[in-house]
Structures are given as structure tokens and as C-alpha cells.
Design brief:
This protein has 279 residues and is α+β, with helices and mostly antiparallel strands. The protein has 13 helices and 4 strands. A hairpin with a 4-residue loop joins β2 and β3.
């Protein structure tokens, strides 16, 4: 069995997208080193990564692969773990600096843009923007199936939007999102009349098998970002939408806690990763 095959065997239960990412990163690292990762010292692995890869986040991905391989082979990882911590600090500093230079709209502009989509009867883009601004979610959360009956939500691995006409509400069930293994299933009941109108129109299109019933054009996980971004203001995408929302609520700890719960991330993670005015 090759080293790569052994690594992939440790990923049983992971999504196909995760496996693909690991395979890609392993191939890159193996090419950089010119040998199996377990055959070289920690120092040589670190040196190869730092000499050939400039981006701290890209370095971090490769370091993580090296750590996982060495742990799999019961080898020491202390030097790699130390380098990983240093790398995280560098990546965070770069992110803060980049965030300072972002020319982002304010929250009111995004809300006005979303309202304009509704007036234009652009139902799919309206729903995407509404959910991004109301629930602070990531791309993967927006990949859901609309159903007319509660009992049609049969899979624990998929997201659903139950359109309850009788109850005049929609129930959004998020089973599959980035941090679902940590935070579990999340449910949101939506009674906003405009949202329900948009959802009914999309569902009607779906029942007629028309293109106006498509929310996400390609459900492949690595393509979701493209479809979400193209629906947003100036193609900003979900990450920048969240930065705008965080900055608009700076200093409001209760609101940050609500955002943390809805998104499925820690408050500290929000402050470090998304607060563009963080000092």
C-alpha cells in the first residue's frame, strides 16, 4: 500500500470534497519533497514548504498533511506543530491587514440591494441574499431541497426548506454545513411574507421543471461559491457579506453571539477572522 493510499484510508466517513482536497494537497507536498513524506525529516518538510510556497494559508494546508502522515506512521510532529502555530499567526496578521484594505459596502446597501431583487422578481437571488443577511450562513448551507411536506425531509445528510403553506411558514433544516459535526442540525422558522412569496414562486417553477426553479446551478461543493457569489452585490460572496454584518454589529456582544450560533462558529473565531476593524 502506498503512503497516499494509507492516508486516504484514514478519511473514511469524510465527504468526497474533503477527500479530494486531501489528495490534492498530498500530491503537491509529495512533489515538493520528491519522496514519501514519512521518509524525510520534519525540518526538510518545513524547508521545502517555505521555500516553494509563499501563501501562509497554502503553507498551512501542506503542513497539516505532513502532520497527519507522520502521526499515521507514529513519528514525531513537534517541529511541524510549532511551525503550524507560527504559520497561523502569520496568516491571521495577513488577513487583518487585507481586511483593513477592503472597500466593502455597508449593511444598508446590501439590504437595499436585496430589496431591489425582490421588486425585480429575481426570486432566486433574493432568497440567497436574504438568507446570507438574516442567518449569516456559508455557501454550503444554501444548497437545500424545497419540499412541500415535513415527511419529505428524509435524509440526515441534506439541507431542506419545508414550505408549509397551511402554516404560512418555511422551516429551514440545515444538516449539511461546514461545522455540522460540531454544532449539529440547525432549524429556522421563517414567516417573512416576502421570503415566502419568493419561495412559492421558485417551488412552482420547480414543479413545472422550469429553469426559474433553480437556486444553485451546480451543487458540486467546490462550485457552490461561484453560484452564490454571482447572486450577491458586486459578486462579493458570502464571506464578505459576513464581514459587513460583523462590522455593522461591532461592540454588540449579544448580536455577535446570535451570529455565532446561526453560522456555527465561535465568537472568538468571528472576531479574529471577520471583524475588519479588529485591532
Amino acid at each position: 500500500m502506498t503512503e497516499e493510499e494509507a492516508l486516504m484510508m484514514t478519511l473514511d466517513g469524510k465527504s468526497s470534497a474533503t477527500k479530494k482536497t486531501y489528495k490534492t494537497q498530498y500530491t503537491k507536498l509529495h512533489k515538493l519533497i520528491g519522496d514519501d513524506i514519512a521518509n524525510v525529516s520534519q525540518k526538510k518538510a518545513i524547508q521545502a514548504i517555505k521555500e516553494e510556497v509563499d501563501n501562509p494559508n497554502s503553507q498551512l494546508a501542506l503542513i497539516n498533511i505532513a502532520i497527519q502522515i507522520r502521526k499515521m506512521c507514529n513519528l514525531r510532529v513537534d517541529e511541524l506543530e510549532k511551525e503550524r502555530e507560527l504559520n497561523k499567526q502569520t496568516a491571521n496578521e495577513m488577513m487583518k491587514e487585507n481586511n483593513k484594505n477592503l472597500d466593502l459596502p455597508n449593511l444598508k446597501q446590501l439590504e437595499e440591494f436585496t430589496e431591489s431583487l425582490y421588486k425585480q422578481e429575481n426570486w432566486t437571488d433574493y432568497i440567497i441574499n436574504y438568507l446570507l443577511l438574516k442567518y449569516y450562513v456559508r455557501n454550503k448551507d444554501l444548497n437545500f431541497t424545497i419540499v412541500a411536506r415535513k415527511k419529505d425531509m428524509v435524509s440526515n445528510d441534506k439541507n431542506y426548506m419545508w414550505l408549509d403553506i397551511r402554516g404560512r411558514k418555511a422551516v429551514w433544516v440545515r444538516n449539511s454545513y461546514k461545522t455540522s459535526s460540531t454544532y449539529g442540525t440547525k432549524k429556522h422558522t421563517i414567516t417573512d411574507t416576502q421570503f415566502l412569496t419568493a419561495l412559492k414562486n421558485i417551488f412552482s417553477c420547480q414543479k413545472r421543471d422550469e429553469s426559474c426553479g433553480v437556486i444553485i446551478g451546480n451543487t458540486d461543493e467546490d462550485k457552490l461559491g461561484y453560484w452564490v457569489s454571482k447572486a450577491t452585490y458586486n459578486n462579493l460572496g458570502e464571506g464578505n457579506y459576513f464581514k459587513v454584518a460583523v462590522n455593522a454589529n461591532k461592540g454588540n456582544l449579544q448580536k455577535l453571539k446570535e451570529m455565532s450560533y446561526s453560522r456555527g462558529t465561535s465568537v472568538n473565531g468571528i472576531i479574529v477572522s471577520y471583524d475588519i476593524d479588529f485591532q
